[in-house]
Design brief:
- The complex is a heterodimer of chains A (130) and B (280).
- Chain A is built from five helices and no strands.
- Chain A is elongated, with a radius of gyration of 19 Å.
- The N and C termini of chain A lie far apart (39 Å).
- Chain B has 280 residues and is mainly α.
- Chain B has eleven helices and two strands; from the N terminus they run ααααααββααααα.
- Chain B has a two-stranded antiparallel ribbon.
- In chain B, helix 1 crosses helix 10.
- Classes of the chains: A mainly alpha (130), B mainly alpha (280).
- Chains A and B meet through helix 1, helix 4 and helix 5 of A and helix 3, helix 4, helix 9 and helix 10 of B.
């Protein structure tokens, strides 16, 4: 196994585990906080006088997710979207991590290919938001 | 969503993740109909959950396949360049090219691949590796250990054509927002004559990259709902892990026999969409 394969495998595995763990913690916390199934959460939260998002809101953008998670006191419902974003950026992080690995091994050609791919991914993400 | 329904969703997502890990697909082909038909989930939310499931399947499976040598990172990165570039071109061409003609061409190509697949049903690994110019220059070759066959050496053939198929699959993804896992497997297996296990394992590495690239579209529309995506991701990740364990022990002919019905279904759906006969 090459250095790039080892690094990519580590980033993919731990990125996925971290993302899913944060998602599960946020969802579990939201269920415990409302004391009810999430489809009944809006009514339960209203009855308890809770403010903030009625249930776990859809993930729309990084600034929105970070703002919601930084809000004090922390709402468990705002934590799960952080996990979703962590999971979604994991493959891109894996590609980024291979660049120094290829360079250390003296493989400039594949370091360049991984860099070009990263630029193409960034352009694709930008176009997707546009 | 009630806890019992959530547990059932984890279980069914695990099945989709296992199939995705073995066949090199994102699992969306199984997950989207399942979520919409059996759980009454809105189509956009199902597609958002599908994107999360593709990344979870890819990350879970590719981490194992890279360690075992089944995923070829050089082939994956080289071909991902073509797919992502194609997706950018496809997104820029929305409305400028006739979607239906493209659907018919690619549906026909998949149908032809399915016919080739039936003819190769009993082929465990392709013939001895050739010595192609691009394959040598970019070192698109490797070796893996198969518990059934021992050490298997391989080298990509027809790299230019394989890259063109990947680019076309990317254009289709960008134009229509559909996944292209099946095209990746077809391009590596039939066009580049890589062993089927290497093709599906490397596809698993690539589908996460292309899914992450298109995630911006789903995020912007608010289609990714954590309440749905979390049990799906947990289930898919567990299923993908089980799928990677099973894949190493399966014969290529078994994997091909499982892949062919998926290929035929996709070919039929693309052709029928091209003819305007597919329900939307």
């Amino acid at each position: 196994m090459t250095r790039a394969e080892r690094v990519a495998a580590r980033v993919l595995f731990w990125g996925a585990v971290l993302g899913i763990a944060v998602m599960a913690a946020g969802l579990g916390g939201a269920v415990l906080a409302t004391g009810a199934a999430l489809d009944r959460a809006p009514r339960e939260r209203h009855a308890r006088g809770l403010v903030g998002p009625p249930a776990i809101a859809p993930v729309t953008s990084l600034p929105h997710v970070l703002r919601s998670a930084a809000h004090h006191p922390t709402d468990p419902a705002a934590i799960a979207p952080l996990g979703v974003l962590t999971l979604l950026v994991t493959p891109i992080a894996a590609v980024a991590a291979t660049i120094p690995a290829f360079l250390i091994d003296g493989d400039r050609r594949y370091a360049a290919i991984a860099t070009l791919l990263l630029l193409a991914l960034s352009a694709s993400l930008w176009l997707g938001h546009g | 969503m009630a806890p019992v329904a959530m547990l059932a969703l984890v279980g069914t997502s695990a099945a989709a993740g296992a199939a995705g890990a073995v066949l090199g697909l994102g699992g969306g082909i199984l997950l989207v109909p399942m979520l919409t038909l059996f759980y009454g989930v809105d189509l956009h939310a199902a597609m958002g959950a599908s994107i999360v499931s593709v990344v979870a399947t890819s990350s879970g499976a590719a981490a194992v396949y890279l360690r075992s040598g089944l995923s070829n990172i050089r082939i994956g990165l080289f071909l991902a360049m073509a797919t992502v570039s194609g997706a950018i071109v496809g997104a820029a061409l929305v409305g400028a090219v006739p979607d239906r003609a493209l659907l018919l061409v690619l549906g026909g190509a998949l149908a032809y691949s399915a016919v080739l697949g039936f003819r190769q049903l009993h082929v465990e690994v392709p013939g001895p590796p050739g010595a192609g110019g691009l394959a040598s220059r970019f070192r698109l070759a490797g070796v893996y250990h198969d518990p059934l066959l021992g050490s298997v050496e391989y080298r990509a053939a027809r790299v230019g054509l394989g890259t063109a198929v990947m680019f076309a699959a990317g254009v289709l993804s960008g134009l229509l927002g559909i996944g292209s896992g099946a095209f990746k497997v077809v391009a590596m297996d039939h066009v580049m004559r890589l062993p089927l296990k290497v093709s599906t394992a490397t596809s698993n590495f690539m589908i996460g990259i292309t899914a992450a690239a298109s995630a911006g579209i789903y995020l912007g529309r608010g289609d990714i709902q954590p309440v749905l995506a979390t049990p799906v991701a947990v289930g898919v990740m567990l299923g993908a892990y089980a799928g990677t364990r099973a894949m190493a022990r399966l014969r290529s002919r078994t994997i091909r026999a499982l892949f062919l019905p998926v290929l035929l279904y996709l070919a039929a759906s693309l052709i029928l969409r091209g003819l305007g006969l597919w329900p939307t």
